[in-house]
Write a structure and sequence with these properties.
55% helix; 295 residues; alpha+beta
Amino acid sequence: MPDFTGDVWINIQGMVAGAINTFRVRDALDIAIVAFLIYHLILLVRETRAGQLIKGVLVILLLYLAASVLELYTLRTIMEYVIRYGVIVLLILFQPELRKVLEQVGRTSLSNLTVFAPNMSASEYERSQMIKTINAICDSCAVLSKEKIGALIVMEKETKIGDIISTGTIIDSQASADLIKNVFFPNSPLHDGALVIRNSRLYAAGCFLPLSDNYEISRSLGTRHRAALGISEVSDAVVVVVSEETGNITVAKNGKLNIGITVNTLSTILYNEFISSEKESSSERKKKLFRRVKK
């Protein structure tokens, strides 16, 4: 009987040898350029809300493929028109992001190296940093609420909001209650706009958020609440608002407002959103998060 396995292996070896023998310097250059473009495309998707739209594009492509396989002619024709003119729509939607990528062509950047504490894994370090950030937010909000100083804090999650960050000033600092209070101190350069927290760090301040179009919002709520609701409608970010008029603390999440909460409730909400509840006991949570500010 013929040895099909051996023949296949010989054919594979021949193809590999042929590819190596015909490989040219221009082929390496071609691969490098394509890899560079793909890398920046991935950065574009990761740093902005473009990732959500990419999912929609994939759904459209899957519908077109399914319509072609199942011979659903009407659906396939509709998908063909959507794909044909959708490219132009995507160019319009992504115009700011594409311009930003083109401006960065030719630039190189080194990734920031994270220094971990001795005997601490990456996950443990991230966890400890997030706990410190939540404590800093709760402590600062307690003071801002008492003094009726307005604040707007956006905590980024899975949906990247790089387009929002680009509207503000990068500070990229470790979280502390004093720094948060200084950001929102009246008449300070960055007190207008939102403070964005990324990877447990105070990343950018003075950022502009999209306002919600929800007309059911109470007229007693100001621009900060409408902005908090707006960003929570288009991303999975958790937003903390301190009212300048009443001092009330509000949390916006998934297009809903939780108005007039206490500092302890704020701690619980942020802990449940960003810290795994399975790895700490109730007493440890209270010790780290439910610290009360002395009045």
